[in-house]
Amino acid sequence: MEPLTYRAAGVDIEAGDEAVRRIGPLARATLRPEVLGGIGAFASFVRVPPGYAEPVLVSSTDGVGSKLKVAFLADRHDTVGVDLVAMGVNDVLVHGAEPLYFLDYIGTARLDPVRIEAIVAGVAEGCRQAGCALVGGETAELPDLYATGEYDLAGFAVGIVERARIIDGAAVKPGDVVLGLASSGLHSNGYSLARRIVFDVMALAIDALLPGTGRTVADVLLEPTRIYVRAILPIRENATAMAHITGGGLPGNLPRVLPAGCRALVRPAAWTARQPPVFRALQEAGRVGDDEMFRTFNMGIGYVVVARPEKAEAVSAQLTAAGEEVFEIGEIVAGERGLELA
Description:
- By secondary structure, this protein is an alpha+beta fold.
- The chain has 11 helices and 14 strands.
- The longest helix has 18 residues, at 113-130.
């Protein structure tokens, strides 16, 4: 019997080294002044930025889910990294935290340095959009765990906020205005249902046009998740609560930041005429009910800001000036904690 090697067992150390060589410059381009040292040590070092009296670190971990299946079909891997960053940084942003640094994990059946570079280029782009540093990560070649040609992603975001300025929704009260920021599309949730409709019910190919959108299936389904950091940071002190609209949609996410005795009354008519057309295409083709749509997809609202009525107009104007499309989608009323679609 020939002597066994790690490569013969399915793990290519040389390919791993080549991937590291390719992604090092991408990560270094995102570094902030707080990052100590470079890429490649056993751990990363990030100091607390100056100016905080009582700094609190805020962390989140998430993935991209079955949106990756679309990337595999399209053989397009340069956008899912943006999604990975978005899912983490938008979450820490909800609590008033400025994203500080990010780490990623890539598990794959076979380590392809070119593909890894494309994925991490997306991660680095997401970090640039969020203003955080990509300080490290892990790439694991696991041929016994993943199907050939597939991979999974996990991301870890850490932000920082002054303790006295943490936003947890406790200040929300009836009369507050609910502002919705437009999503770019499906973002990174609801893809099990979306893929079932597009590929099974509609029987579309990945390069076919998705009816009603004027774009290909790949372009629509791989549209990156919007990152709201730069628009939100300047207005966060005027927010009583914020929510990132992910899995569970508006009904599953906005109530998470409401105190007892407060209920969100949301009017879809305020924005649905301007929502991305993918939602109508999926609903009509899949004959999906309204309630199921709203608890599965973001339905065109990717992020919510709750503000006092006397501040809502100014907050909306500031967000619009920052490039966001903003809708006044409802208000907070007295009642059992939850959300009602009017």
